[in-house]
Design goal:
The protein is about 15% helix and about 45% strand. It contains two helices and 13 strands; from the N terminus they run H-H-E-E-E-E-E-E-E-E-E-E-E-E-E. By secondary structure, the chain is mainly β. The strands form four sheets. Strands 3, 4, 6 and 7 form a four-stranded antiparallel sheet that branches. A three-stranded antiparallel sheet has the order 1-2-5, with no helix packed on it. It is elongated.
């Protein structure tokens, strides 16, 4: 009798254990509330609160906005202005291949007298100029602003800055014109890759760091280890005393 009771207890324990496993499985697959990436808790293998692990990367979740460093409207001829803004991307691995932007021009009374929109891109850790040349205004420009649209962030895998070097930057004026002056440089591709569609942006600054002029030159490409002499003219006098020339070689690595 005792042996039979032990056997019954053993078999009952087996069935009880099976029932417990089945109950746990039903709960796990059908009733358990799954952890989320918006519960404000550091759980489920996340690297930060609600980011990393099974959630979006923390850098993407906490991506910082593009910073507009400065914006300037530079008079050219008639009622035309060259518009330039310097923007910077503080994110280490994320950039954007398509950003809408809009310049707006205002007169002394604060009335909008002109605008210019376009699209640009920005790479990780990049500081770059956004340029629009010969924009027509209805009157004397007193203020200019730049606004950016929504930024769709995109990660560039194993991103490395292109080995494009700019040196021997020069600026010279002419006694008569046009052209009244020109900026020049030597562009060298020190990389092992060929680059196509390079945008060259020339910026003129005075001794106080105020931008005096901007110009643009597009080149079809630059082969590995190739270098080229480049120059851009100004067909009108540049206001102020130029003390420094900066040249940006901009390459859209998203393309």
């Amino acid at each position: 009798m005792e042996q039979r009771l032990k056997k019954q207890i053993f078999i009952g324990s087996i069935f009880g254990l099976i029932a417990l496993v089945l109950a746990f499985g039903v709960y796990f697959f059908y009733f358990r509330v799954a952890p989320t990436c918006a519960d404000g808790k550091l759980n489920q293998g996340e690297e930060g609160i609600d980011c990393g692990g099974p959630c979006q990367e923390c850098e993407l979740v906490n991506a910082r906005d593009i910073k507009i460093e400065w914006v300037k409207a530079l008079p050219t001829t008639g009622q035309n202005y060259d518009l330039v803004a310097m923007v910077s991307n503080p994110n280490q691995n994320y950039g954007s291949r398509k950003i809408d932007y809009e310049f707006k021009l205002y007169d002394l009374a604060g009335k909008e007298i002109g605008s210019k929109s376009g699209q640009t891109f920005i790479l990780p850790r990049q500081e770059k100029a956004i340029v629009e040349l010969k924009v027509d205004a209805l009157a004397l420009v007193s203020k200019v602003s730049l606004s950016l649209g929504d930024v769709p962030w995109e990660k560039l895998g194993e991103y490395v800055d292109p080995k494009i070097n700019v040196f021997d930057k020069q600026y010279q004026t002419f006694n008569s014109g046009p052209p009244f002056s020109q900026a020049s440089c030597i562009l060298k591709n020190s990389d092992y890759a060929d680059y196509k569609n390079i945008s060259m942006i020339f910026l003129l600054f005075d001794a106080e760091g105020e931008v005096l002029g901007v110009n643009y030159l597009g080149i079809d490409g630059l082969s590995a280890n190739q270098q080229r002499y480049l120059s851009v003219p100004w067909q009108f006098p540049v206001n102020g005393q130029v003390a420094r020339v900066d040249v940006e070689a901009v390459i859209n690595l998203f393309e």
